[in-house]
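Q: Start with the shorter request: fold the first protein.
A: Done. Sequence, then structure:
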Amino acid sequence: MAIVVNMPRLSDTMEEGTVAKWLKSVGDKVEEGDILAEIETDKATMEFESFNEGTLLHIGIPEGDTAPVDSLLAIIGDEGEDISSLLNGSGTSAPASETTGDTASEDEDQMEVSEDTEQGGGEIPEGVEVVKMPRLSDTMEEGTVASWLKQVGDDVEEGDILAEIETDKATMEFESFYSGKLLYIGIQEGESSPVDAVLAIIGPEGTDVDAVLNNKSGVGKKSAATSSVKEESKPAQADTKKEDTKSVADGERIFASPLAKKIAADKGIDLAKVTGSGDNGRIIKKDIENYTPSTAAAPEAASAGKAETAVASQPVSMALPSGEEGTEEVKNSNMRKAIAKALGNSKFSAPHFYLTIEVDMDNAKASRAQINSLPDTKVSFNDMVLKACAMALKKHPQVNTTWNGDTTTYNKHIHMGVAVAVDEGLVVPVVKHCDLLGLTQIGAAVKDLAGKARSKKIAPAEMQGSTFTVSNLGMFGILEFTSIINQPNSAILSVGAIVEKPVVKNGEIVVGSTMKLTLACDHRTVDGAVGAQFLQTLKSYVENPVTMLA
């Protein structure tokens, strides 16, 4: 089905964009992550990449033309697909009905309200810039400020990193397009706000920030008012709790990274008792992980216990538990909410069934040892499984499919998703065209993508477009497990640990190495026999790695 691509908002103040240059022409194939065009905003000329795959069927804004944000920029779909219904009556500036529904009228209403408010709200002083929460991914609706890299009163230069913002896909650095003093922070660390909420105000020192907030129109004014109400209406108990988490005994503020704060909260560690090893004594992740609670409290507790025993009039015949019940609510991150939504949709919409097979790993262990004996060569068992899956998918295209309701898409390319655990959940980087890569190339690609994922530097495009996924928990000693299908894939492979155990070979009991593989299949596209045949082919490749090199 054709996808309508709209003119994106590439900066927080962008209202219209000019197509400086098209990098694709009508009829060209477009892959996810390809650069479609260079778009000139009010601040710079930026590359705009595609989040979709297919054929470029229509260009709505020619080179050199200017159009408002959300105008029809292009249409991507299947070659020869009829797109007349998307073009009739819409012109080149119509919003995408397939992706935005009835938002056209809502946008018009919002523009009218904004104009009315601006007429009555006064003007923002010259040199003062109101920075709004940016839309850093195509699906982002709200963002969470993970950490501020600048504080109120700091000098900000154009290009400086203002804050780290957590989207539904990754944590990304947000840089300033302006120079001046950071006068106001509208969203505190750990707080979430919708796109276009007031994030900060930058301008000359001495600017009346309250006047700027009062003069702001539309969303900005509402956000400022909401922020003010939130601060004024917090009960004293909440203020005390917040202050306790940020202050030490002498009243000084504790400086800690957001990740360190989260881990400390999960472990029940008082940040005031932790010594930071980061810049200016900032507490970082390793300080929490290496923290050992002091034992000084133990003698005090013992003394208190003796005093209570002395006062008691009757001896206690048995020790009763004296622990306290307690709970703590931790706000779900945008990543955790996105994971819950995606996996819930998959589990409850796709009829899963599971097939398990046991693989002899003796030859694989010997082959890996021989490969890794070569200079500058390092492959893992997981790399071997990925390569085997890619080759098996070529022989069983029914498994490399996507269910669309009325149709099934057979993917001719093989993009392998690799599940990677990160601090806040799970992400799935994608190794593109895995069937065309060698074992060492697959290993290098997985290592690079996993590193980016764990450091939260991975781009959204590097986590999209998978046609099959592999999840490996063998390194944690898990022998066998089942996974939830990573839609729009039709299957996912769960890889267990390699174990040594008695096996029968040539009629004798000997020590052998085995590994269990479990395939979760979407029964709408993959039948039991098809899944079983895929596993048989996969087994033959894994048990005889030399066949993957032929």
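Q: Next, the second protein, separately.
A: Sequence, then structure:
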Amino acid sequence: MTDIKAHSIEELNTLAEDIRQKILETVSKNGGHLSSTMGATDLIVAMHKVFDVEKDPFIFDVSHQAYAHKLLTDRWDRFDTLRQFGGICGYTKPKESKYDYYVAGHSSTSISLAVGAAKAIALKGEDRIPVAFIGDGSMSAGMVYEALNELGDRKYPVVIILNDNEMSIAKPIGAISKLLSQTMAGSFYQKFKGKVEKVLDHLPESASYMAKRFEESFKLITPGILFEEMGIEYIGPVDGHDIESLIETMKVAKALGKPVLVHAQTTKGKGYEIAEGTKEHWHGVSAFDLKTGEAPKKAGAKAATAIFSDTLVELADEDEKVVGVTAAMPSGTGLSAAIEKYPERFWDVAIAEQHAVTSMGPLAKEGFKPFCTIYSTFLQRGFDQVIHDIALMDLGVAFALDRAGIVGEDGETHQGTFDISYLRGIPNMTLLAPYNDTTMKLCMRFAKEYDHPCAFRYPRGAFLAEDRESPAYELGKSVLLKEGEEILFIGYGNGVGRAEEVAELVEANPAVLDLRFVKPLDEEMLVALSAKYKKWFVFSDSAKMGGVGSALLELLSENRIDDVSLTSFEYDDTFITHGNTKLVEESLGILPEQLAKRIL
């Protein structure tokens, strides 16, 4: 580990530049998060200078900003393996390093984790202080305020570092605000305030009231009143790139012995001019040329997200009742085009999946057709809302689940493996999936006309199957793509393409079924096929437990069909690591050539 306790300010500034250069060199080759982690570097250097990473819990929100932390804690020499199969994870991971306190990949958990850590530290009577590092985007989720509410009441010693790289919580008012904020960051002000508070407790009621009103008016000029009112000491905004000032501010925060929020303003992409500023496409990047900032152009099939985006705009053009929402991922989910064309009908509600889901319910109730567009891994955060606010009312919200299946380098926290398992048991919910460009459009048109809750899933990148003509979707109806002998390959969604690839590699002549719906299943078709095909193989990019194979076994059991053997090639009961998708699939034994050897 790099010990920076004895480093001078000049040495720390040089180290921060070296870290940024290391990040640039690595991310330009491997891809990864760039602008936010570059902007966070000075803050993290100051954190490591003031706090003790050997004992203080360093808790990073989302943790895509934590590359500098990784470089400062025993991973400099391995950093070139970032996000590679078998290499360093792009997020904090305790199994990777003892200096990573907690797994993080989803947002807005850090303050809750810090409160939990503070409780444990208090119960154990230890001299440690949790440090939560959170970006301004994560502050849009309700979980943050649930945690702040308790923290402000319980008064545990916790330091929250708010990395504000987009905009202030409230816009500072010119030079006066800057002067006041710098003053509030100093130890003199904090000591003075503490003494004043003690004096106020002993003043007559009228004098105390006037003094407190003066203090409140003083705070109103700064953006910290929200936190102060919740019982959290506020310091800032401070310059997030002035390491010397940051160190002094953090020392003050640490010494207060109560909950403190340090509000630091940073520049995204700091140190790489091409990426500096609020440029969304530099948040997460593929490999690129350092000199030009250009990524190599990739030829290939159109991504499923792009097909979704184009089709959604077509549906919106045709019907003004079509509306949609996403939670902080407009470009990632393909909703940007619809938001740009119809800003009054499509919304980005920031990192607030619970709100996104619930808010679409009344729109469906009022006769609109909402498309709730969220990554498979992020809809997990709105699970109760899907049940309580949509399915219970049997409202026609269509859930478009992007990034279903293995997502590659983002790894365990982002794999889209569980949506079938967690949605299939919900009453009134219909589950369907496309397997190529044409079926994606047909699937969306079905969802648009369907008056009940439904969810359709599709992969990151392009579909495996080639495009072709296909019949329209009918509720609970599958399509037999190919007749065969003895063996039946059942594909769901992108699994159809994998089934067809395996069918080309085996000596047998398997039939291939596009299942289309996993809820409800096409019972009539499946029972009929069970009479002819006694060996079923299931292909779906999803968890085996509660997945497509489970649904089919339930159907066979209910129909007392006991002469069909079923093998599911869905994912085993484990969290799937990060890395190149093909390498990850090879490690799981699900590449077509590997599966072909398992067909007996």
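Q: Describe the second briefly.
A: Residues 167-177, 217-221 have pLDDT under 50 and may be disordered. The CA atoms of residues 224 and 237 lie 9 Å apart.
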